[in-house]
Amino acid sequence: MAVTTHTLSATEKKHWWLTNRKIVEKYIKDARSLIATQDQSEIASALNLLDAALAISPRFDQALELRARALLYLRRFKEVADMLQDYIPSLRMGNDDSSSSSSDSSQQLSREGVKLLSSSSESPVRDHSFKCFSVSDLKKKVMAGLCKTCDKEGQWRYLVLGEACCHLGLMEDAMVLLQTGKRIASAAFRRESVCWSEDSFCVTNIPFSGDSTNAPPSTPPRTLLADSESVAQLLGHIKFLLRRRAAALAALDAGLYSEAVRHFSKIVDGRRSAPQSFLAECYMHRASAHRSAGRIAESIADCNRTLALDPTCIQALETRASLFETIRCLPDSLHDLEHLKLLYNSILRDRKLPGPAWKRHNVRYREIPGKLCALTIKIQELKQRLASGETGNVDYYALIGVRRGCSRSELERAHLLLSLRHKPDKATGFIERCELADERDVESVKERVKMSSLLLYRLVQKGYTNVMGNIMDEEAAEKQRKKAALQAIQAQKEKANEAAELNKVVESNRSSVENTNTNNTQNRSMVSSSTVNPAVFQGVFCRDLTVVGNLLSQAGFNRSMPVKYEALSC
Question: How far apart, in whole angstroms, are the C-alpha atoms of residue 164 and residue 84?
Answer without folding.
Answer: 10
